[in-house]
Every structure is written in structure tokens, then in C-alpha cells.
Amino acid sequence: MVWGVRRPLRVFARGASLRRRVAYSLAIVRVILVPVIFLAVYYLFRMGWIVDRIVSVDAPVATLAERASIEMMDARRAESDYFLSHDPAKLKVNRDHLSDLEQIIATMRDRQPAERATTQKMLDDVKTYRDHLDQTVARIGEPGQPPVERIQRVVQAYERDLDELLRRDNRESRSRLVDDLRSGVGSFDAQISETMQAEDPALRQAAMGLQASSSELMQLASDMEKRSWERMYRDHQETQQLVRRAEWVLIIVSSITLLLSILASILLPRQVVKPLVALKEAVDHAAAGNYEIEFDVEGDGEVVQLANAVRSLIAHVRDKRLRSTVGAPH
Known about the structure:
The relative contact order is 0.13. With about 325 residues, the protein is an all-alpha fold. It folds into two domains: about 5-40 and about 245-325; about 50-240, no CATH class. The protein contains seven helices and two strands; from the N terminus they run βααααααβα. It has helices spanning about 20-85, 90-110, 115-140, 150-165, 175-200, 200-285, 300-325, and strands at about 5, 295.
């Protein structure tokens, strides 16, 4: 009877040793895990950068843009108070609001360099508004100017409308309130301009400049606020996309790991366990006195070395038994 050990199936290299197979397995594990680790680090840093941009740039700039509009409206309110009372303290309040407004714009410029052109235009509008206000204040102080009573009546009507607007219940949205305030400011400027136009074209030109510069500044602030909220929305969307990508990467890596584990569980018995079982059967045959065993091995791995050792041992036992049989007396 001839018994042979089938040539073992090899996964990685023909005749590779167990140590080499283990080394290849570890290399494959590293090939899978290293990109996963780098991707995880990338996703963490990317999401951290996005969150930091939202917290440090977009959200503060949106809030500052809203404050810029409020400061401009407060400055216009102080301006109207000055026209009504000619109180220098009101003029100082107006200039304090303008100084605060410039600081807010400078902070926005530092936090969001991409809006540098817009913030520079806002600073130019503040300067233009201040110049027109100074011209108006100087012109009002000259003799022969339009009667103060007429301007005061316009201002008083504007203040009544503004107080009524601010006393509305809180059901009004904030954006609606800001739009109404802007409309009120525009109405006030229009009435002041009409009053001054009838009396002094120079004052009319200055009042129109006040209206134009302040309206443009508030519009720029509103647009910047809107863009900041849009950037926050896009950042939020990008964060969600990163989370979804990370989930897909986790699913793919888990699937590959599962497939490799199944492949290993199929190949390992065929490459290692099955040859060992065959060698055990060969030893059992030899122990039973059946030495007609044919070994068909190939390679230089540990299993092959073990098969060669078993073959040599069986051959040695067979030769020794033959010699004993030949030398025995008949």
C-alpha cells in the first residue's frame, strides 16, 4: 500500500515557512490598520478644525455683524437726540457708538480675513458718516440756518414711531424688528432731508450722506452676518459628511477583517493542520508494520522539515527491521 502526503496548499509563497506566513499575516494587518489609524486621526483633526472655525470665527463674526448694525442704529438715535436737544452729551454718545462700531469692525476683520474688503468698506462708511455728521453739526451752528423747531418736530415724530416700535410685544422676530428699525431710520432721514432741502441745500446734501453711509454700512453688516451663518451651515454639513465617511470606512474595514478571518480559518487547516494529520497517519501506518509509504513533499517550511524527519525515521526503522529479519535464524 502506498500512502502519500498531498502537496500542501500555500497561501503566500511556495514552500514558505510558518514564520514567514505569520510575518505576512502581520504585514497585512498593518496594511489594513495603518490607513485606518491615519484616517481616524485625519477625521478627528478635520472635525476639530471645523468646530474651532465655527466657534472662533463664524459664530463670533455673525454676532459682531449684528452688533455692528445695532451700534449704527444707536448712533443714529443719538444723532436724532442731538438734533432735537442740541445737547453736546448726545453728540458724544453718538461718537462713542461710532468708536465702538470701529472696534467691532476691526475685530471682524481680524477674525475673518476673507471679509477684509467688506470690513474696509464698512470702516470707510463710518468715516464718511462721521464727516457728514461733523458737517451737519457745524452747519446747524451757523446763523441763518433752518428753524430748529421744524427739525425738532420731525425728530419728535420719529422718536414716537421708534418708541412705539420698541414697545411691540416679543412675538415679533428679531430680524423683523431689525428691518423695521432700518425702515424707521430711513423714514427719519427722508423727513430730515425734506426739511433741510427747503431751507439749505448744503444741509440736505449732508443729511443724504448720513443716510447713504449708515444704510450701506447696515446692509454690509447684514450681508456679512448672512454669509457667516451660511458658512456655519456648510461647516455643519461637512461635519456630517465626515461622520458618514468614517462610518463607511469602519464598515469596510470590519468587512475586510471578517473576510480575512474566514479565509484564514479555511486556509489554515489545509496548509498546516491537514499535513500534520497526514504525518500522524503515516506514523500510525509505520507503527502497524506498513512501511510502504510514499512522501510527496515540496518546499522548506517547518511542516516539510517535519515530514522529511518522519520519512527518515520510518526509513531507518524499516531498514533496521529488514536487517533483523535477514539476520534471524531459520
